[in-house]
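We emphasize that the prediction below concerns an isolated chain of 144 residues; any contacts that depend on oligomerization or on bound cofactors are therefore not represented. The input was used exactly as deposited, without trimming of termini.
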Amino acid sequence: MNNQDTIHLLKECDAGSKMAVTSLDEIMEDVKDEKLKEVITKSKDHHTKLGNEIHSMLIHYHCEEKDPNPMAKSMSWLKTNMKMSMDKSDATVADLLTDGCNMGIKSLYKYMNQYPSANDKVKNLCNNLIDIERELREDLREYL
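Result of the prediction step, given as a token string:
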């Protein structure tokens, strides 16, 4: 069934996965610790793989992709660059990424509540995205 909640939730997941990949790419050049680089790379790979699944579902529903909100992207970029200019440590990287995970999880739950009639397959994709964010947040704890 092709309902509007399904499409809206799918588009929000698309924007969220893209935002995550962009953020992980932007911060990677500042990471010093090799293990932290592996954590970030693993998470980026998970986000990318899930983003590809989301993209396939968008095609299935004959919907266009959704890019992250330009204001949110700009604010994220500004916050990242300001904090990193003051302290280029791995702890700062972990702090920024943890904040990003928290924002992503919060937003995804908001959208799940906003679009309760979305089909189960899309809800599962959204929950998978939340799980990826949680896993990254957990993996970052030791660097805070």
